[in-house]
Design a protein that fits this description.
The chain is an alpha+beta fold. Helix content is 37%, strand content 37%. It has a three-stranded antiparallel sheet, sandwiched between helices. Strands 4-6-5 form a three-stranded antiparallel sheet.
Length: 145
């Protein structure tokens, strides 16, 4: 269920702004595999068996952040963000960061509304089956203390 939410959210936000070579690698199976690997850092919102959003932390990085399209505007995203920032603070992170696909303006506006600052464009080596895929992304940071 959660991998499907991630897959659908990724398709909705990214398929029209990212290279076709990357979108071909982002199959439902690839999201299932990435979710298993990231599981210790994952936090889910919604009823058991009916997730409406999630995030994943990786060190000081807010590694993934997705909300189901039907839950947008419900306050779930703000709740998840507050929870993610609290967990980052609890783990001792002073400055958190996240990568946002260039052109994902809806996500960028949400991050900025939550106090995150776009600090520039960087190359992110994304995990893909069999290796990595280098992609230019917007980097956002937030001082948490």
């Amino acid at each position: 269920m959660l991998a499907k939410l991630w897959f659908d959210g990724w398709q909705d936000a990214h398929v029209h702004i990212l290279p076709a070579a990357l979108t071909r690698l982002r199959t439902l199976g690839s999201f299932e595999e990435r979710l298993r690997a990231a599981w210790p850092g994952v936090r889910v919102a919604g009823a058991a068996g009916a997730p409406v959003g999630f995030y994943c932390l990786k060190g000081a990085e807010l590694y993934q952040f997705f909300v189901a399209s039907q839950a947008r505007g419900s306050g779930i995203a703000a709740h998840l963000m507050a929870d993610a920032e609290a967990r980052l603070i609890e783990s001792g992170v002073h400055t958190a960061w996240l990568a946002c696909a260039i052109g994902n303006d809806r996500a960028a506006r949400f991050y900025e509304k939550c106090g995150w600052r776009r600090t520039g464009t960087v190359i992110d080596d994304l995990d893909v089956p069999g290796g990595t895929f280098a992609l230019d992304v917007w980097r956002f940071e937030k001082t948490l203390r």
